[in-house]
Write a structure and sequence with these properties.
There is one protein chain. It is built from 9 helices and 5 strands; from the N terminus they run αααααβαβαββαβα. With 210 residues, it is α/β, with parallel strands linked by helices. It has a single domain, classed as Rossmann fold, CATH 3.40.50. One of its GO terms (biological process) is methylation.
Length: 210
């Protein structure tokens, strides 16, 4: 795709500016040290509204989708495009992906689903009105599935791929991204299961909400 486009450069600059805010970074450091005792890194990032993933810009996604032939689905009379984003996080990448599909197939009706294991990130997805499903296999005939930086963070990558295959439409498309070199790591907090309900209550009272 050549050099980074304007949107990517803007994201890099925004990240640089955020990193240069000394007091904000100090607060994040202290909060992370406390919250990490009983929460996963993903939950901590969600509460502090930091660590949003960036993979591709809208235009870069659109280029890949064009090459995948996704537009042909709409041309074949399928006005509704069912999209599933696995491990959607806070939904920032999901939003870029959906925007790219909208630009590629402007007359389509996009039905969006997402999966996410972090309860904090689920609340971020709810803010963006993204429907979260508990299990992938509750869906069927999905036209497009994105699995971005997830396979190396799940317990059984092969089982996940089988699940994805089972819900894809016969002419569906799958986009997979992996961080290289491959390093398998499943996130788990020592006290996560015991304290999850307590964390939800604390969060509902407005603590650590930004």
């Amino acid at each position: 795709m050549g050099s980074p486009d304007e949107i990517t450069l803007q994201w890099i600059e925004q990240s640089r500016l955020e990193s240069s805010k000394l007091w904000l970074q100090l607060w994040h450091l202290l909060a992370k040290a406390f919250l990490s005792v009983f929460m996963t890194q993903t939950d901590v990032n969600g509460i502090l509204r930091r660590g949003s993933m960036y993979i591709l810009s809208d235009n870069q996604f659109q280029t890949i989708l064009t090459n995948s032939g996704l537009k042909n689905l709409a041309n074949n009379g399928n006005n509704t495009i069912r999209v599933l984003d696995i491990g959607a996080g806070d939904g920032e990448v999901t939003a870029r992906l959906v925007n790219a599909i909208s630009l590629l197939v402007p007359d389509s009706n996009i039905t969006l689903f997402a999966t996410e294991s972090s309860w904090v990130m689920r609340s971020r997805l709810a803010e963006k009105q993204i429907q979260v499903v508990e299990e992938i296999n509750v869906l069927n005939n999905v036209d497009f599935v994105s699995c971005l930086n997830v396979l190396d963070r799940c317990i059984d990558p092969l089982a996940l791929l089988h699940e994805i295959y089972s819900v894809l439409a016969p002419d569906g498309r799958l986009m997979v991204a992996l961080v290289l070199p491959y390093s398998h790591y499943v996130e788990k907090s020592r006290f996560q299961l015991n304290h999850k309900c307590l964390c939800k209550q604390i969060y509902s009272f407005g603590f650590f909400y930004f």
